[in-house]
Backbone:
DNA sequence: GAATTACCAAACAAAATGTTTTCTATCATA
DNA sequence: TATGATAGAAAACATTTTGTTTGGTAATTC
């Protein structure tokens, strides 16, 4: 990718994040972003068609890092390091914590809706294999419940309870939701 | 309240709901609402300062009905009808089901964020007294978890799983989250 | 019946959107 | 290092949306 493109794209992302700390998503105009990023009007539209597309691109960008390959792979071989499910959740939380300043404003604001939708898409893929099977409650409900709960846990954590460590938080989650997850996956080795 | 005011207010609400079935909240303009409701421009602004205020007003309106007084009262005397906590949840679900056509578009769309925020405000008040006390997990987390999970349960239900009855759905919820709720409140009498 | 109030229509300024054009600076590469 | 392709800047533009103001009409309240 052209170095100029990358520079501009980053300037836009950076401006976007900075502005989201002060203003709400809906009150944020393309003009604001253009001014803050200090780029030409036509340049912005060359990169993103709308403000929504920008948000979408940023979500993809961030989650590409947060959900690294080894987290998304379904099964680990016996001779590789065994990760309990909770460890993988903790891992995600650590990644999110690293990007915290970028993410916090997005998660809590009103664009949280879009952000959460993306987040949950990844979580669905990841959680799908780890539901316990014996239950009168429909599987589709339990999956939605497990995913939504974790997403909301993250929102809660980033919003105002950052005092807890990633491992503590994943522990809270497992304590409350663990009963609908596959037991093997929630136990530490 | 002036009959004309009520009429206009209703026309705006109705137009708003109707439009939300076709378009997203952010792509919806005040002008659209004005046209659909067939009212004067200045009339709209006499009622609501912004589109957001309209949404807020509608949330208040709907939840005023859904969370009726007897649901919100904290304790029931022994000689009145005893409601288990699940019964009260079922009751809320029934109310939501009645307003379904109005609510569905709001819950699932992007303005769901705002709607959910309001919904959860009421739920916080209601759930606060019904958490079990014995747990290593912080109370603040358990409360947020219980509330968020129920709100997400409702979203899930209205979105595409309306085939389940209110009582079934509250049952699913209690099955998954009941362990952090006060036992007495979850048992039917 | 009189005063108040809600509504409407129309016009308005201001701001935001999205596109187009022309020109310049930077890049990839041969 | 010369060259064609690409990215960006600046400015102008039509269009849309917003939010306010005006003056006049119809419904209501008392």
Residues:
């Amino acid at each position: 990718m052209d170095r100029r493109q990358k520079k501009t794209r980053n300037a836009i992302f950076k401006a976007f994040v900075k502005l989201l700390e002060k203003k709400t998503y809906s009150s944020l105009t393309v003009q604001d972003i253009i001014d803050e990023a200090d780029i030409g009007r036509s340049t912005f539209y060359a990169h993103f068609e709308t403000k929504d597309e920008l948000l979408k691109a940023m979500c993809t960008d961030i989650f590409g890092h947060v959900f690294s390959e080894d987290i998304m792979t379904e099964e680990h071989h016996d001779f590789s390091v065994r990760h309990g499910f909770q460890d993988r959740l903790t891992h995600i939380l650590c990644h999110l914590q690293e990007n915290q300043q970028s993410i916090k404003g997005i998660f809590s604001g009103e664009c949280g809706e879009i952000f959460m939708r993306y987040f949950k898409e990844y979580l669905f893929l990841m959680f799908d294999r780890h539901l316990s099977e014996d239950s009168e409650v429909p599987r589709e409900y339990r999956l939605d419940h497990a995913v939504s709960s974790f997403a909301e846990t993250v929102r809660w954590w980033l919003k105002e309870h950052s005092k807890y460590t990633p491992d503590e938080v994943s522990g809270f989650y497992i304590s409350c939701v663990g009963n609908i997850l596959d037991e093997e996956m929630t136990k530490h080795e």
Notes: Residues 2-4, 29-31, 41-42, 45, 49-50 of chain A lie near DNA strand C (CB under 10 Å from a C1'). Residues 97 and 129 of chain A are 26 Å apart (CA to CA). The two ends of chain A are 43 Å apart (CA to CA).
